[in-house]
Amino acid sequence: MVSSMPSASDLLGERRRVLVTGGAGFIGSAVVRRLLRESTVTVFNLDKMGYASDLSSIEEVLNELDDAATGRHRLQQVELSDAAAVEAAVKEADPDLVMHLAAESHVDRSISGPGVFIESNVTGTYNLLQAVRGHFEDLRAERRDAFRMHHISTDEVFGSLGSEGRFSETTPYAPRSPYSASKAASDHLVQAWHHTFGLPVVLTNCSNNYGPWQFPEKLIPVVTLKAAVGESIPLYGDGMNVRDWLYVEDHVDALLLAACKGESGSSYCVGGHGERTNKEVVQAICQQLDQSCPASAPHTDLITPVTDRPGHDRRYAIDPTRISSELGWSPRHNVEQGLAETVRWYLSHQEWCNKVRARAGYDGSRLGMKTQTNAESGNA
Fold first, then answer.
1. Which position among 54, 87, 155, 244 bears the catalytic label?
2. Kind and range of the H or E element at 88?
3. Distance between CA atoms of 20 and 43, rounded to whole angstroms?
4. I want to staple 65 with a disulfide (CB 3.0 to 4.6 A). Which of 69, 71, 164, 295 is the partner?
5. What are the CB-based long-range contacts (under 8 Å, 24+) for 177-181?
6. Is 156 a catalytic residue?
7. Cis peptide bond upstream of 298, omega within 30
C-alpha cells in the first residue's frame, strides 16, 4: 500500500515548539527525526535516558543537517515521576504541541517488576497532564486554539481477541498484563483531563511497532541477532499468538496526522494490516538469514519452543478505518517490505546493538518468568 503523506511542516502549520516525551526511545526518536528533517520547529526531547533510550539515530540526522538543526533539538533529561521537574520542563518548552510517548513498554519486564510501570506510565502521565494543563490555561487565545496534547498508547489495553474481529475505538478496555493495565490507566487519565478540565487531547492506540533502532529486547531484533550468530531462537508456547505488525515510519505518519489534524477528544486506532503469528515472523526472519548467510542455512533449525509467557494474549488486530477515512492515513509498507528492511538494518548494525545492550546490562536472555517480591523491588 502506498499513500501520500503531507510533510511535518505542512501538518504543523504555525506550531513552532513541540515537546516529545520519550523522544530517545524507539518510536519517540522516529518522531523526533521526522520533525527535524521535515520542519524547522524546536523539538524539546523529554526523556529520562533509561536503559532503552539512545540518541544515536537523532545524532545521525543532526549530522546530515545544517548547524542550525542542532539548536532545534533540546534534550531534557527528566523523570516523569518527578512532578516538579516535569513542570519545569514544560515551562521551558512552552509547547504548541505535546506528543506523549514516554512509557515503560516491555511486557516481560512488567511481569518481573510491575512497580516501575505504575510509576512511569500512570503517575508519570498524571504529572505530565497537570503540568500541561497549567501551561494550556496560561496560553494566549490564538495559541490555545491550535494547542494539542497527543497521548500515544497501545492496542494491548483492549485485551485478547479470538480468531475473529478487530479492535476499534469502541472496543471495551480489558488489559491483562501489568504493562497494558498501566497504559489503560494512563489512557483513562488523559480522557478524564479532557472531559473534566477541557484539555485538548488526541489519543492513539497502535499495534506492534517494528523497524530500525528498536532496543534489541523485542521479538524481531532478538530473533535476527540470535540467528545471525547461530544461537537458539526462543519461540513462546506454540508460536501461534497473532500480532498486527506496523512499520515504525508508517506509525509516525499516523501520529503526526492525529496530533495535528485529529479531532480534540477523539481516539484513533492505528494498525498496519499486518497480522502474522509469531511463528510466521520468526520463520520469515530465518528465510532472510538463509539468503544473507547461506552457509548457516536453514536457520529454522535454531527455533526452540520455550514455556509461554504468563497471561500471553492470543491475538491482537486493529481496525484503522477511522484514521483512514477521517485523516487519510494508510501504511506505506507491507510486512514483507518492512521486515526485509529491518532485518538488513540489524545485520548491518550489530555493533550498535552490542553497545546498547552492554550499556543496559542486558545480555539477551529471557525476562518475565518470575514474580518479583516486595523485598526484590525494594518495597519491603
1. 155
2. helix 83-93
3. 7
4. 69
5. 177/107, 177/110, 177/111, 177/311, 177/313, 178/110, 178/111, 178/114, 178/117, 178/118, 179/104, 179/105, 179/106, 179/107, 179/109, 179/110, 179/117, 179/121, 180/107, 180/154, 180/156
6. yes
7. yes
pLDDT tens for 284-343 read 999 999 999 898 999 999 999 998 888 788 899 999 999 999 999 999 999 999 999 999
Give the position of cell 532485518.
Answer: 343
pLDDT digits (tens, 9 = 90+) for 83-111: 999 999 999 999 999 999 999 987 888 98
Q: What is the pLDDT of residue 350?
A: 96
Question: CB within 8 A of 159, min separation 6: which ones?
Answer: 173, 174, 175, 176, 180, 313
Rounded (5°) CA angle 253-334-13:
10
Q: Is 155 a catalytic residue?
A: yes
Confidence bin at 68 (pLDDT 50/70/90) = confident
Kindly report the average pLDDT of the chain as a whole number.
93
Which three cell numbers, joined as nine digits, stand for 56?
Answer: 544515536
Residue type, 19: L
Instruction: Let me know if 210 is a catalytic residue.
Output: no
* Lookup result for grid cell 491483562: 176
Which residue has cell 506528543? 99
Count Cβ atoms below 10 Å from residue 247 Cβ, excluding itself.
24
Residue ranges of the alpha helices (H) in 164-271?
A: 178-197, 219-228, 248-261
Q: Backbone dihedral region of 324: left (phi > 0), alpha (psi from -120 to 50 degrees) or beta? A: alpha
Q: Where are the domains of the chain?
A: 16-279+305-361
Is residue 23 very low, low, confident or very high in pLDDT (cuts 50, 70, 90)? very high
| Active-site option among 179, 210, 247, 268 | 179
Q: Is 196 helix (H, G, I), strand (E, B) or coil?
A: helix
Between CA 250 and CA 63 the distance in angstroms is: 24
CATH homologous superfamily of 16-279+305-361? NAD(P)-binding Rossmann-like Domain (3.40.50.720)
pTM: 0.93
- Give pLDDT, residue 299: 97
pLDDT (tens digit, 9 = 90+) per residue, 179-234?
999 999 999 999 999 999 999 999 999 999 999 999 998 899 999 999 999 999 99
> Which residue, among 330, 136, 145, has the nearest Cα to 249 in the 3D structure?
330
